[in-house]
Each structure stands twice: as structure tokens, then as C-alpha cells.
Amino acid sequence: MSILIKNVRLNGCISDIYIKENHIDRIEENMEIQADVRIDGTGKAAIPTFVNGHTHNAMTLFRGFAEDMALEEWLHEKIWPQEAKLTEEDVYWGARLGCLEMIKSGTTLFNDMYWYFHATARAVEEMGMRGVLSAVMIDNFDAAKTANIKTKIQKLYAESLQYSGRIKFAMGPHAIYTVSADALVWAKQFADAHHLLYHIHLSETETEVGNSLKQFGLRPVQYLEQLGVLGENVVIAHGVWLSDEDIAVLAKRKVKVVHNPNSNLKLASGYKFRYQELRDAGVCVGLGTDGCSSSNNLDMLEAMKVASLLQKAWRYDPTALPVDEVMKMGTVNGGNMFGLKLGRIEEGYLADINLINLSDPALVPRHNLNANLVYAAGGSCVDTVICDGKVIMENRHVPGEEEIIRNAQEVAMHWIKR
Q1: For position 415, what pLDDT does the model report?
Q2: Judging by DSSP bridges, how do beta strands 353-357 and 382-387 pair with one another?
Q3: pLDDT tens digit string along 50-77?
Q4: Residues of the domain holding 333
Q5: Which end of the chain is more exposed for a tag (fewer CB within 10 A), N or C?
Q6: 161 and 196, same structural domain?
Q7: Distance, CA of 309 to CA of 317 (rounded, Å)
Q8: Angle, to 10 degrees, between the axis of helix 117-127 and the axis of helix 88-104?
Q9: CATH number of the domain residue 163 falls in
Q10: What are the residues whose beta carbons fall under 8 Å from the beta carbon of 23, sequence distance 6 or more?
């Protein structure tokens, strides 16, 4: 399979991009070469696709369901009781809806944590995306549940090997307040033995930190460090409440951190995410949307805008988190975080490319394309999406999108009435 993109704007110049199999093979001007697919890039710009570093993808079904609530109340009274009613079929259509939304806003890789692993894996395979899919672990400090989870995870990992290379299995202990020390440590050992990522919510709220100090005598980061869990295959979501000592430990252990600005603001978890301190310590920081139950959409350009504005606001510094830097958080940093050569349009990189419609009013005039994308436009400016060397959206149409929207609406209405 090969693709030739002709006359597309790339880094301020007009170029051709030749994709062979799933990699960018050549970038030249006026290239004449045979290709299976030829795309006219006139009036379009080529940029890397986005990496959503933390999602609960199928929670598109919860969009608008539980609004304006505190996190603990939101989880215990609304989210967890309703999640218990979900079926695998519900999750499948919710995941397909999430994949559709991400594709239409330019995201091709997401790091997910949700129930019914196979439902989301099927959705990812069918939609042509990439997914790092976590096996959720919640034992609520019950030894019998811990034993059962271990058995299920081992079986699920073996079953996950049936999927394509676009799907990566990951361990997903939910949080230190829902998972026992035994399970946290076992999950890390399993991840290390099988070269897997370890995805966990950590230091999301001030309440979590306070409870950790009461229960364990340590802050969340220090608790995981004492357990021997932290390492370079660990990705923590949120990290809003980090001390200087926490950041030093994360840097030492090469832990990755995903910032989720919209979710943190909406749930009032906190807003002083210490991006500069993490960056300066050498921590790889990515960007995520979280689930649609708390952020309401999966648009990474919106997440970039909020992240940048938030840093400027709480630091009283308009130079904090410049536009090119926040774009890097949502592209190349995400690729580094998940061990993939993504986030740049360069020869040898994986062929995950967005073609942007330069006729979108929010992109005119083009003094600075990245600034227009982050501060002015939204995901609707994405015209064509290529993932793993295959076109998965063209002229803003994704195959099967009408069926996805119809079925997701139906299962959401049936599920909520149960």
C-alpha cells in the first residue's frame, strides 16, 4: 500500500509526501512516483496527528449525564452505579463513537482505561486507529477480588495477542484509593515481565493526597515509590497535586505524566498543574482529554488551548506554555510516551498525518499555523486523516459514521433506562 500526497503545505513550503506501507518514505518537491492512492493536497497543510494520552473512550455514552458535581459525589452517586449496568455491546458502540469523534478531530492514538477490553479493541481495529488499552483493576482492598483480578488479567493478556500491532495491551490499576498494595505491585511485576505500560490515576485531587497521608503516611507518589511501582513504563494521569519531592521522584524513575486540563477544571480537581517544573526536571509530559463524562469532548486542539491558557493564567505569565510547546505535548511527546515514532512529519516516521483545510475561516490569515490551530480553530478544521499508512477519513467523512451515531444514541437511551 502506498499513498502520494501532492502539493501540500508542510512547514511553510509546498511539498509532496510519499507513504510506503505504514511509514513516511520520502518528502520532496514535485515528486513523480506511482502510488496506490493519490491525494491532492492543494489548499491543505500536513501536520502530525494527535495523541490523546488519557481517556475512558466509551464514556462518550455519559456525555451530559452527570454535570456540575464534585468528583467524589460524581463517582459514587452517578458514574460507578451506572457503569455497573453497561454491557459489552454498550461499550462497543460507545467506543466506536469515541473513535469517530477522535478521528474527526485529528487523533489517531489514544491511551484508554475502561471495562470490556475486547469491545474497545474491536472498535479500534474496525476504525483503523491505534489504541493503548488498559485492563482495568479495582479490588477495593478485597483479597478475594484481588485473586480473581489476577486470573482475569492473565487470561485477557493472552487473548489480546490476537489483535493487530495497532493495539497495545496495558495494565490499568485505577488508583491508590481503589486498588490494594498487593494488586498494585503485582500489576507492575506483570507489566515488567511482558514489557507493558502501567497506566494509573495519581495525585488528581487534594482530597486524594490528604487521604493517602492518613491511610499510608505518605503522599501518593511517595507511596508508589515505597512499593517499588514507579518506573519508565509508568504513565500517570492528572498529577495536579505534586510537590517538589514528588516531581524529583517522577523524574528519577522516568515516569510519564498526562495533563488533562478540561477534566481537572470541570471537576474542580485543581488548576495549578506544574508543567514547567515537570518539564525542567526532565519528565515527559503529554496531554489528554479524559472521558466525555468529565470533559465532554475528545478534541485535542481544545485540550491544547485550555492547557496553554491555564498555565498563562495561574502563573500570570503570557509566555508560559507557548503554542509550539503545547502542540508538541499533544503530538511528539505522546509518541515518546507510548514508544512509537510519531508526532513529526519526517522521513522514517510512522505515517499518521492530518491534512488541515486551510480555507477554514479560523485559519485565515496564516501568520502562524500552530497558533491558529491551537487558539482559534477546533478539530473541525481537519479534512483528511491517515493512520498507519491508510486513509481513515477523507473530506471529513468516516466510513460508517451514520450507523455509529445512530446506534450509540440507541444504546445510550436503553442503558440509562435499565
Answers
A1: 84
A2: antiparallel
A3: 999 999 999 999 999 889 887 778 888 9
A4: 50-337
A5: C
A6: yes
A7: 10
A8: 40
A9: 3.20.20.140
A10: 348, 349, 350, 351, 389
